[in-house]
């Protein structure tokens, strides 16, 4: 079974030390990377998704109910972080070291899976390539679920291969547990597990009675259901719904499937993302899973109305998936090369070519073609199904990383086959393989520059760090980060707006106003910027400018809480009481629980009816309490 293109004796070589070699090299490289990259500004203060996971983990660890926010994204990773926090305290170093060990175990599992199909030398090639695969090392070190998802993927590949040869019930039970935990870490693994089990059942039925095969497969499915039941039950207690998939599945589907998907896949944290996120709420939908259904309906209508555009989008996303470069999502792996010599060697791009995926994929294709009969069914399930799921949604290097364990086994066999040809002096076949290899490299390295690659991620990184400090009431410490972001990209609207907010919190309204005015000038179509500008004018007592800003915000975006209320305040500043009353009423239509708007509406109505109206007023927005018309000063 394990004969390949190596010499016959190679298969019987003493390879008992290979597993330890693979594990130690993988772990050592990951630890060296952690030390070398610890100077990057986000190492101890992770941003975007990582920061969200940290906040959720802190809530869970402290015993506070996270509510629907826990089920917005897959639940496994924040629960893992919470467990570490509960037992060992909050240590970024400890989390990253644990993940480095998990990453090394993934490499060992792929070695063992390859060893069951190919020779020890081929397995060693697969294990070492995975141990030194730069993007994998990077994502395993981030506070993201990808490292664990890769581990569950490697577990499934190994257990499928092991259970196919040995009938011990423990292998089938472990397979079910790993499939369930993988689904809770990254839901696309559900598709791979289900279809992998179907193919596995067919393979088992060929060498044992159907009833026996069904019993073994049933063990895997029962353990799979046991794992998923508990979080689904908690989800029902917290949200009233017994669901397995996160509530963000709908918005993620919409991002990659709409008429303007090239823009939505490149939408940045801040106003661009908020505009997409607020779409259901603008339509009156507020429940998290109803919001998911709202996006799914938008996609359904789009596919039905524009099937040609939909298919064209799938083709374009397929090109993205198999492109050799690592397409960014919220962070750009190439940016972090500047803080780590290890990463700068293991991940780079030269023009349109990206290393290492640009070499791994051709090697894997070579192995799949040459040894297709011997490639484990689980590997085929990953290779054929996982890309299809990601392409259906949208593509990034971070989401593609789960395919890497499956590619390593055929890539190892392809590499060894090529080395053997060279050693044998077979120039004709070597040249033919080299030509095919070159063609694949060209096809995966198209010169197109995708919208996702045209973002200044370094500026965004510093802006995110500043925003997190401001959220923690450390506005003074946030200022240097905003300044750095604006130095890198002077027209970064989110940084301009956030700088304005930080200066306002520090009691520097004049400076804040200048930044907010520039933000509006850069992006005059963003309603939130006009609203924030109106607040600054209102605080300065410049009621005509405040009114104009709030009216512009309402013209650009309706249905947002507080917009009508603050317009009412600016109208009160101009002693236009009846108009102020109208906008208080509109605010109450949007948010009936707005206590201050209701009190203002009732007091204004009473004052208008009695004719007892003040002649002037002064407002202090930062200290705004229960303000009434008679509380103003002439």
Provide an overview of this structure.
The N terminus and C terminus are likely disordered. Among the domains are: 356 residues, no CATH class; 58 residues, no CATH class. It contains 31 helices and 2 strands. It is mainly alpha-helical. α18 crosses α21 and α28 packs antiparallel against α29. The relative contact order is 0.08.
Descriptive keywords:
2 strands; 634 residues; elongated; 31 helices; mainly alpha; disordered C terminus; two-stranded antiparallel sheet
**Rg, please?**
29 Å
Count of extended strands: 2
Strand content: under 5%
Distance between the termini: 94 Å
Structural class: mainly alpha
Tell me which oligomeric state these chains represent. Answer: single chain
**Low-confidence runs:** 1-10, 615-634
Helices and strands in order:
Layout: H1 18-37, H2 49-61, H3 76-88, H4 92-115, H5 120-131, H6 134-141, H7 146-165, H8 169-185, H9 189-205, H10 210-239, H11 249-255, H12 261-264, H13 271-277, H14 279-282, H15 288-305, H16 307-321, H17 341-346, E1 348-350, E2 353-355, H18 357-370, H19 377-392, H20 397-400, H21 404-424, H22 427-443, H23 457-471, H24 475-488, H25 493-505, H26 509-522, H27 527-539, H28 543-556, H29 563-573, H30 577-590, H31 595-610
Antiparallel strand pairs: 1-2
């Amino acid at each position: 079974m394990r004969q390949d293109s190596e010499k016959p004796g190679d298969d019987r070589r003493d390879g008992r030390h290979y597993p330890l070699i693979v594990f130690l090299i993988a772990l050592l490289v990951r630890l060296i990377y952690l030390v070398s990259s610890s100077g990057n500004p986000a190492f101890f203060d992770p941003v975007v998704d990582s920061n969200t996971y940290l906040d959720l983990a802190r809530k869970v660890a402290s015993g506070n109910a996270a509510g629907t926010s826990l089920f917005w994204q897959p639940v496994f990773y924040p629960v893992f972080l919470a467990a570490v926090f509960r037992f060992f305290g909050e240590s970024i170093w400890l989390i990253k070291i644990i993940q480095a060990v998990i990453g090394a175990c993934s490499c060992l599992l792929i070695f063992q899976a390859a060893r069951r199909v190919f020779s020890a030398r081929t397995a060693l090639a697969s294990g070492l390539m995975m141990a030194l695969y730069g993007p994998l090392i990077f994502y395993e070190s981030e506070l993201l679920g990808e490292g664990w998802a890769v581990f569950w993927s490697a577990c499934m590949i190994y257990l499928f291969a092991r259970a196919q040869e040995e009938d011990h019930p423990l292998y089938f039970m472990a397979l079910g547990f790993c499939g369930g935990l993988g689904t809770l870490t990254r839901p696309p693994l559900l598709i791979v597990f289900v279809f992998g089990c179907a193919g596995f059942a067919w393979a088992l039925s060929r060498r044992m009675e159907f009833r026996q095969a069904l019993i073994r497969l049933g063990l895997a499915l029962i353990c799979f259901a046991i794992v998923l039941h508990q979080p689904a039950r908690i989800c029902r207690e917290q949200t009233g719904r017994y669901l397995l998939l996160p509530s963000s599945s709908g918005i993620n589907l919409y991002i990659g499937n709409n008429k303007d998907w090239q823009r939505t896949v490149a939408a940045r944290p801040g106003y661009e993302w908020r505009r997409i996120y607020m779409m259901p709420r603008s339509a009156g939908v507020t429940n998290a899973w109803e919001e998911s259904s709202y996006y799914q309906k938008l996609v359904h209508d789009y596919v039905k109305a524009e099937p040609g555009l939909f298919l064209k989008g799938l083709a374009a996303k397929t090109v993205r998936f198999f492109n050799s470069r690592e397409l960014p999502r919220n962070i750009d792996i190439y940016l972090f090369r500047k803080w780590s010599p290890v990463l700068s060697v293991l991940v780079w791009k030269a023009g349109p070519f990206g290393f290492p995926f640009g070499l791994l994929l051709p090697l894997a294709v070579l192995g799949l073609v040459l040894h297709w009969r011997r490639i484990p069914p689980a590997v085929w399930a990953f290779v054929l199904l996982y890309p299809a799921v990601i392409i259906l949604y949208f593509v990034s290097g971070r989401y593609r990383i789960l395919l890497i364990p499956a590619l390593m086994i055929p890539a190892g066999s392809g590499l060894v086959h090529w080395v053997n040809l060279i050693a044998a002096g077979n120039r004709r076949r070597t040249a033919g393989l080299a030509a095919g290899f070159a063609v694949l490299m060209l096809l995966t390295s198209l010169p197109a520059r995708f919208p996702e690659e045209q973002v200044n991620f370094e500026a965004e990184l510093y802006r995110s760090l500043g925003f997190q400090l401001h959220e923690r009431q450390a506005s003074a410490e946030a200022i240097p980060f905003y300044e750095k972001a604006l130095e890198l990209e002077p027209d970064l609207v989110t940084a301009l707006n956030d700088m304005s907010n930080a200066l306002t919190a520090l009691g520097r309204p004049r400076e804040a106003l200048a930044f907010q005015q520039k933000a509006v000038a850069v992006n005059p179509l963003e309603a939130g910027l006009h609203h924030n500008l109106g607040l600054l004018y209102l605080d300065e007592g410049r009621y005509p400018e405040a009114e104009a800003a709030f009216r512009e915000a309402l013209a650009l975006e309706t249905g947002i809480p507080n917009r009508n209320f603050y317009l009412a305040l600016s109208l009160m500043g101009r002693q236009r009481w009846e108009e102020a009353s109208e906008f208080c009423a509109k605010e109450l239509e949007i948010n009936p629980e707005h206590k201050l708007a209701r009190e203002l509406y009732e007091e204004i109505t009473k004052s208008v009816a009695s004719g007892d109206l003040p002649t002037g007023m002064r407002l202090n927005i930062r200290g705004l309490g229960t303000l009434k018309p008679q509380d103003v000063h002439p």
